[in-house]
Amino acid sequence: MTTGVPSRDTEAIPLWNNAYEPAQLGGAANLWGDPPVPFAHTAAEMFAAASASVILDLPCGDGRNLPPLANGAPILLAGDTSLNAMAIAEKVTDRAGIRGNVVFIRTDVFDTGLLDNSIDGIFCWDLLGHLTNPEDALRELYRITRPGGTIVANMWTMNDCQVSDPLIKEIAPKEYIDHFDFYCRFYDRDDLDALLDCVGLALDSVEVASWWEPPHAGYRDYEHQHESLIFTVKKSGG
Ligand SMILES: C[S@@+](CC[C@H](N)C(=O)[O-])C[C@H]1O[C@@H](n2cnc3c(N)ncnc32)[C@H](O)[C@@H]1O
Description:
By secondary structure, the chain is of the alpha/beta class. The protein is built from 7 helices and 10 strands. The chain binds S-adenosylmethionine.
């Protein structure tokens, strides 16, 4: 999709789309399960308190976080590279009665096609740690954030359950390839600071938090506990 993107990030795009194929889901309605991550509620409250008009869930995956995020602004853009994922997400929005507030866009975090300074708040969950080039993704998210707007994102820590998954393979310190051939990078606070320094961004807030998730159909077949650095970056101005 985008020139200059390291090949592993580009090559992962069709793999992700396959992960949402009905055959892969084995009869389950979705890949990630229904409960939203707790921080989707928190982000929506933050966006609403700032009177956001247009917010973006990127990547939206198969839509578990869309119902709470829809409380964050009148218009919720839901973007992902996976059409299979967004087909499931659309049903989620129908069931939640929020379809009229959500605009789906097939888009790549490295090149969203959105205007500069156009989005009041961005929720970017469980993507940056999968990227070998999170720097360019963050640059793009920052470009489209309006001055005064906020990006909410996470980076898994080394205490995240994925590190001890029996099928994951370490390729370098804190870097792994999982059983679906997805790249996974785990961060501590210094790593996060270094990443943001590298792209010239300042942390607005950061916390370490853990939460439980149900099994993910065909991908992680057991209940598991994630741990992440959850951070916000605010665009200056506004
Ligand atoms: C682990 S899932 C997380 C989905 C969602 N944020 C959630 O919490 O349920 C990662 C998602 O990133 C999407 N993705 C992978 N590469 C992408 C890219 N370059 N741009 C946008 N989305 C991408 C995949 O299709 C997948 O839906």
